[in-house]
Amino acid sequence: MEVSESGKKFIAGFEGCQCIAYPDIESPLAKKCKQQGISIYGNGYRRLLNWNTYKGEPWTIGYGNTGGGIEAGTTWTAEQCYERFEITLETLSEMVTRYSKGIWLTQNQFDVLVSFAYNAGPGRLREVMSITKLDSTLDRKVAFANELLSYTRGHNYGRPRGDPVPGLMRRRKAEKELFLT
């Protein structure tokens, strides 16, 4: 299976697109910017005095992309951002297909699995599929959809410490709703 066009729009809508690299929202740099009322986007973090003395890793660009070569000052065109988005979706679609072998999925369910993996990482997807024993039965699918709601704490996914991140709460609720339709 592949991610549908509506699935791509769903994921892109939550990820947003930034053509200039920005610090991770839970990094010391982003937290300091927030304290000072400074945006981390569009090089806004550079307005913070001595910004480069704070860690911002992992730096993010495009539709939530991180990794090698992405650092403060990295700039991509909108086309580069979308190209990386498409490559990432293709990779994650192949991975979700392997993880869900033998499980009957609707297109919406497949799209949600890719969305969750895109945002939380493939390891987290495997974890949730394992915890809920996801299979083709309705009760296991409902259990999976409900378990998504516990992954709303940023880097502390599924852990009791830390407050839920509002954006992740909105995303997980939307993923649950889409998964069950």
Describe this structure in a few short sentences:
The protein has helices spanning 5-15, 28-36, 78-99, 107-120, 122-132, 138-148, 166-179, and strands at 18-22, 60-62. With 181 residues, the chain is mainly alpha-helical. A two-stranded antiparallel sheet has the order 1-2.
Could you name the key traits of this structure?
mainly alpha, Lysozyme, two-stranded antiparallel sheet
What's the CATH C level of the domain at 5-15 and 87-179? Mainly Alpha
Structural class: mainly alpha
Question: Helix fraction?
Answer: 40-55%
The mean pLDDT is 91
CATH architecture of the domain at 5-15 and 87-179: Orthogonal Bundle
Number of helices: 7
**In percent terms, what proportion of residues is strand?**
under 5%
Strand order of the largest sheet: 1-2
How would a crystallographer describe the biggest sheet?
2 strands, antiparallel
Query: What are the segments in which pLDDT stays under 50 over at least 5 consecutive residues?
Result: none
CATH topology of the domain at 5-15 and 87-179: Lysozyme
Total number of β-strand segments?
2
Tell me the radius of gyration.
Answer: 17 Å
N- to C-terminal distance: 18 Å
**Judging from the principal axes of the Cα atoms, what is the shape?**
globular
What letter string, H or E per element, gives the SSE order? HEHEHHHHH
